[in-house]
Amino acid sequence: MFGNFFKSPKDERGRVPPGQTLTERFPVLTYGPTPSLKPQEVRLKVYGRVETPLELSWDDLMGLPQSDLTADFHCVTRWSKLDVKWRGVRVLDLMEQVRLEPSAKAVLLHCYGGYTTNLLLEDFLRPENLLAHTLYGEPLPRDHGGPLRLIVPHLYAWKSAKWLRGLEFLDREELGFWEVNGYHRRGDPWKEERFSEG
Ligand SMILES: Nc1nc2c(c(=O)[nH]1)N[C@H]1C(S)=C(S)[C@@H](COP(=O)(O)O)O[C@H]1N2
Ligand SMILES: [Mo]
Fold this sequence. Notes:
Elements: H1 2-5, E1 21-22, E2 43-48, E3 54-57, H2 58-62, E4 67-74, E5 79-90, H3 91-95, E6 106-111, E7 116-120, H4 121-124, E8 130-135, E9 138-139, E10 149-151, E11 164-170, H5 177-180
Parallel strand pairs: 1-5, 2-11
Antiparallel strand pairs: 2-3, 4-5, 5-8, 6-7, 6-11, 8-9, 8-10
Bound molecules: the ligand Nc1nc2c(c(=O)[nH]1)N[C@H]1C(S)=C(S)[C@@H](COP(=O)(O)O)O[C@H]1N2 and molybdenum atom.
Molybdenum atom binds next to loops.
């Protein structure tokens, strides 16, 4: 509270995690191919440790409440971009449609193109997390993950899965693509959780 009292909203102090540099640009970071999907082709599957698996169409997603999010974006390759403006469906609004089994502890995010990344439920079920389809008021560009990507602002951006296709709920943590290849299982930029210790 007091920290913010003396700052203008755009003040950068205290917003750039250790080891990061600000950029005004919005670089594209993709490993592997960039899928090409029309919104009407997108299906979002919700499965695993859920009482009833779901498959949402684009129209289903657009029928859910729509929310705006302004959030800072931190890539583990050491660039950060402040105040990125997204619009989409909050994870918590989507999860109103989903009944998790009590054993559910984690989620593995699956993407068109084969990329995966993992989150614990406590990191996934946060009020700011968004399934984004709009960036600065325009349809989310394909190279930034359009038609649909996840945004998880409090962790490094490799957790913000582009071209999202599935949420697989699990009773234990299962590592995703970068996490298997040496990145940290959680990825908190304020703790510089860049790489796994192992
Ligand atoms: N499907 C998919 N999602 C992904 C990636 C990817 O290669 N494939 N890269 C991640 C990484 S490392 C970062 S930094 C952000 C980059 O998002 P941007 O390309 O919109 O800047 O997307 C993340 N989500
Ligand atoms: Mo990244």
